[in-house]
Amino acid sequence: MKLVDQQIRMIIACLMLFGLWAFPALSGAQPRMVPATFSQLAQQAKPGVVNIQTVKTIQGGGRVFRHFFGSPFGNQPGLEDFFSPFGRMPRNRTESSLGSGFIIDKAGYIVTNNHVIKDADQVKVILHDDQEYDARIIGVDPVTDLALIKIDAKNLKPLTFGSSKDAQVGSWVVAIGSPFGLEQTVTAGIVSAKGRIIGSGPYDDFIQTDASINPGNSGGPLLNMDGEVVGINTAIIKSGQGIGFAIPSDLATSIIDQLKDSKRVSRGWLGVSIQDVSREMSEYYNLEPGEGVYVAKAYEDNPAYEAGIRQGDVIISVMGEKINSSRDLTLTIAGLKVGSKADIEVIRQGKNKTFTVKLGERPDSLENSQFGEERNRFDDLGFMFKTLDEELADQLGYPSSIKGLVVTRIDPGSQAAMSGVRVGDLLVEINHKKITGISDYTRVMRKIEKGETAHMLFRRGNSQIFVVRFKK
């Protein structure tokens, strides 16, 4: 009898174990998390993944070509044929590259990386059944490395987006793409980490995965076990093993929608210089460790300042969402619609205050800026600017009533370097449009078409005014 009881208990235990295994919802495990479904997922998703081939023209034959085949005596007539093993030196050459992408709707829109199609003269899309189509570029967002292209084709099988927020660390994911030009390659792995910052820009928020990603995978989808796109494969660590990065779908979808609707991306803008709250500052302001973002400066005539936010405020939430770092604030504000109103809660002198801010548009030139109104990279003309403030005006001897952009650096060999403009000169107008800050400069220059002339009015010191013409 005792033996029979033991057998019954063993049978019940086995049934319970089998039941929990067979019905993962009862055990708390995620459904369809076993590798046996990889083949079904791949078969279902592969028709939505494409191979992208581009051709671009390299001016002057390229640096490598000139290095090996150029004349050691410079550009002297009659010497090109002698020193070039291919006869006369080519002025241009073409270069091909490969990448991946995925279809997002039956109208033919395809998502890929900006670096896959950047500066391309021709973009060709190859479907899973080897059909080839010429694609046109709809819009790009270099800051997040996303691009939207389109083909005219029928019977397409698009992929659907899932939420990257729901992709848990340790969950299975599948990457499909064309590594090294090997089309429709399927690799599997897990989500290794989330929220990775790799130094590519102000909106770094990558999914890290150990699913094998190699050159050529760029722009391809990272799929969950439901076949939904939770990431766009974008970057790898050189010489890294099992370390790849994907743009989260939750970040990408809003950008893709904007590219589809208006062919460009606009982001919310406060107009503040911010920094993370240190441990000492947390104690001083009586904050929880890691809570809030310190406003180092609120720029006049910008949305935050006009709403009442000032230097010394600590921003702790936006629209009820907690803010724990500068990155949190940057991502949150950038994700809000330009012109919308955002309730921003701050701590000022130990008291909580809420301000309603009508968001402006973040100027493109500030995307990589450390401070709110400073351009920290050369523009297409070769200038680097900083908005004139009281401190800078005192240093350079400009009256405090004057507004404009101070030239802080000039790129050697650029149009700017050959124009006679000097560091310290103040840009006040472009084509009779007042320039009071970087946002003005970006807006005016964006309206000037390639090949047109920009007439720039500069001031040097308190008396000298001069105009310089630039061909865009």
TrEMBL record:
CDD domains: cpPDZ1_DegP-like. SUPFAM superfamilies: PDZ domain-like (SSF50156), Trypsin-like serine proteases (SSF50494). The active site is at residues 115, 145, 218. It catalyses: Acts on substrates that are at least partially unfolded. The cleavage site P1 residue is normally between a pair of hydrophobic residues, such as Val-|-Val. It is an enzyme of class 3 (hydrolase). Residues 255-325, 363-439 form the PDZ domain. The keyword tRNA-binding does not apply. InterPro entries: PDZ (IPR001478), PDZ_6 (IPR041489), PDZ_sf (IPR036034), Pept_S1C_Do (IPR011782), Peptidase_S1_PA (IPR009003), Peptidase_S1C (IPR001940). NCBIfam families: degP_htrA_DO (TIGR02037). It is found in: Periplasm. GO terms for molecular function: serine-type endopeptidase activity. Gene3D superfamilies: 2.30.42.10, 2.40.10.120. This is Probable periplasmic serine endoprotease DegP-like. Substrate binds at residues 115, 145, 216-218. One of its GO terms (cellular component) is periplasmic space. The keyword Repeat applies. Its main location: periplasm. It comes from the Bacteria. Keywords: Hydrolase, Periplasm, Protease, Repeat, Serine protease, Signal, Stress response. Its EC number is 3.4.21.107. One of its GO terms (biological process) is proteolysis. Belongs to the peptidase S1C family.
